[in-house]
């Protein structure tokens, strides 16, 4: 409408119809939210200020503590509300659901409360803490597939065969309304409107329900979704103005690892969501640390998305003196993942820089290099003798000034005569090379380097090794369990030029995600 003013009557009528439909949609969901039956199982979670983060960002940050729910996630709201609407016949037939964990716990708890038989299909990659939590509520569990999509397909088959009701984790009006009660509580708990509300996004049930309610009562407040950069289903759908299906999704934030946003969720989001911000795994880890610093609680990666998003938003636009609400959507994280989270948090906070430096292999050169670091705190230093000419060192340093301080540091080192390669954003260097520096191979021909990911399950690593070693010699191998759903391997393989095509065909048949890293400077400096 805001153009040159030459708007036809037909265009104006279409605009009015759009406004009317928008109003009807919001009114419809507000009514559903007000009638939602969630408090038989859910608590009204507190809205708490984050004083430390607020001071750092020069904005007031308020955290909605859905991690304090009985199942440590908001998901029980939508699941219970949907199941309250089952008919007597449907209750007798029982329900089935597919979930990587949080929705499964919500369905299982609701089924126990309502006396309904529940069968939950969970991917084989689901963290054990979530499987055991579902089992504790008495639900029957079937582990199937490596992803939510595979589990969902299997669950739909069970629903048809056993005549159970399928409880969708996000694409259902009553589920959406149940999640929307969080927005109702926020408005009650903080009568003055926020400048923006940041909401994690997976399939879109949470943001759809909350946005419908917020835009009715606080239309001026921005609703900002936050997604992992490798699971941007809503972000990409809004750009395309239609739902799209991602080829693959990252699994670090497993609670939001969804390839396609829900149909009804997208219908609401395209009318109510102002923006979707994307964050990477390191930024998520830093946000988990921020939540811990302010609350002494540990969020799961998906639960910390909103905090990562508000940090990125305020930094990007240099925003100060505003008020923001952020949703901590859950705390179901495996304890063994904390090692990886802690290792990456400083990188996500831009408080650590990783790099390689070349120094002369002569007496006193190591001392001189340390002096060139100007008293900075060293977090990591890896070195191994290779030859009499030059030495390669892998260094981690604490920083406080982000990218600007990193640039100053590298410029200073280069002025002192040191060749420097920045590895702070090099995924292979952070995942593998830092743990295996110093392995230059001599008299080794035809080595190619590959990075693989495969579903983490008992025996998976052995099967991977067995298949890889049948034809080609493995000359380098690094595997480290990060407590995640997918295992990560770095492998050097001797592949003569005449066998390159055959090896590429083998990789495709293998079916694992794969990246060739032969030209990666981290490999060339430390391993080749």
Quick structural summary:
The protein is of the alpha/beta class. The chain is 43% helix and 20% strand. Strands 1-2-10-7-8-9 form a 6-stranded mixed beta sheet, with helices on both faces. It has a 4-stranded parallel beta sheet with strand order 5-4-3-6, with helices on both faces. A 4-stranded antiparallel beta sheet has the order 12-13-11-14.
Task: Give a written overview of the molecule.
It is a single chain. The chain is an alpha/beta fold and 528 residues long. It contains 20 helices and 18 strands. The strands form 4 sheets. Strands 1-2-10-7-8-9 form a 6-stranded mixed sheet, sandwiched between helices. 45% of the residues are buried. Mean pLDDT is 86; it is low at 1-5.
Poorly predicted runs of 5 or more residues: 1-5
The N- and C-terminal alpha carbons lie at a distance of 61 Å
Question: Biggest sheet, strands in spatial order?
Answer: 1-2-10-7-8-9
The tally of beta strands, per DSSP, is: 18
User: Number of helical runs?
Assistant: 20
Query: What structural class do you assign from the helix and strand content?
Result: alpha/beta
Biggest sheet overview = 6 strands, mixed
Shape: globular
* Share of β-strand residues: 15-25%
Q: What integer is the average pLDDT?
A: 86
């Amino acid at each position: 409408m805001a153009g040159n003013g030459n708007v036809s009557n037909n265009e104006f009528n279409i605009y009015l119809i759009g406004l009317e439909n928008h109003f009807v949609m919001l009114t419809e969901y507000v009514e559903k939210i007000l009638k939602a039956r969630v408090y038989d199982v859910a608590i009204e979670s507190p809205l708490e200020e984050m004083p430390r983060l607020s001071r750092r960002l020069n904005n007031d940050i308020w955290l909605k503590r859905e991690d304090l729910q009985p199942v440590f996630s908001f998901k029980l709201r939508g699941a219970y509300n949907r199941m309250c609407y089952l008919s007597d016949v449907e209750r007798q037939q029982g329900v089935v659901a597919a979930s990587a964990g949080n929705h499964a716990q919500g369905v299982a708890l609701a089924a126990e409360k309502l006396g309904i038989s529940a069968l939950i299909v969970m991917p084989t990659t689901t963290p054990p803490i979530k499987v055991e939590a579902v089992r504790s509520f008495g639900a029957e569990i079937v582990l199937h597939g490596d992803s939510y999509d595979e589990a969902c397909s299997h669950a739909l088959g069970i629903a048809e065969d056993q005549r159970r009701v399928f409880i969708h984790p996000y694409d259902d009006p009553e589920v959406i309304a149940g999640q929307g009660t969080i927005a109702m509580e926020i408005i009650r708990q903080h009568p003055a409107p926020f400048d923006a509300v940041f909401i994690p996004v997976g399939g879109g049930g949470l943001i759809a329900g909350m946005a419908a309610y917020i835009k009715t009562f606080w239309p001026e407040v921005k609703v900002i979704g936050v997604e992992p950069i490798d699971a941007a289903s809503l972000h990409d759908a809004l750009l395309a103005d239609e739902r799209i299906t991602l080829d693959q999704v990252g699994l670090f934030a497993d609670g939001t690892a969804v390839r396609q946003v829900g149909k009804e969720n997208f219908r609401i989001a395209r009318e109510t969501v102002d923006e979707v911000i994307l964050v990477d795994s390191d930024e998520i880890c830093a946000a988990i640390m921020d939540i811990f610093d302010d609350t002494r609680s540990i969020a799961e990666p998906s639960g910390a998305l909103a905090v990562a998003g508000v940090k990125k938003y305020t930094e990007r636009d240099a925003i100060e003196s505003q008020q923001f609400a952020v949703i901590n959507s859950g705390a179901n994280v495996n304890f063994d993942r904390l090692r990886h989270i802690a290792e990456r948090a400083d990188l996500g906070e831009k408080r650590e820089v990783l790099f390689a430096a070349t120094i002369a292999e002569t007496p006193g050169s190591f001392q001189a290099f340390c002096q060139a670091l100007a008293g900075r705190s060293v977090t990591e230093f890896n070195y191994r003798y290779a030859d009499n000419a030059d030495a390669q060192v892998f260094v981690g340093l604490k920083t406080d000034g982000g990218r600007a301080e990193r640039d100053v540091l590298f410029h200073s080192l280069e002025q002192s005569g040191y060749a420097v390669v920045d590895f702070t954003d090099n995924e292979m260097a952070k995942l593998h090379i830092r743990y295996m520096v110093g392995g230059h191979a001599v008299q080794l021909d035809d080595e190619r380097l590959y990075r693989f990911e495969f579903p983490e399950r008992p025996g998976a690593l052995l099967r991977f090794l067995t298949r890889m070693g049948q034809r080609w010699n493995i000359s380098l191998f690094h595997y480290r369990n990060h407590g995640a759903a997918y295992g990560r391997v770095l492998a050097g393989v001797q592949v003569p030029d005449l066998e390159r095509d055959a090896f590429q065909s083998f990789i495709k048949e293998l079916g694992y995600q794969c990246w060739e890293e032969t030209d990666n400077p981290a490999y060339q400096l430390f391993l080749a």
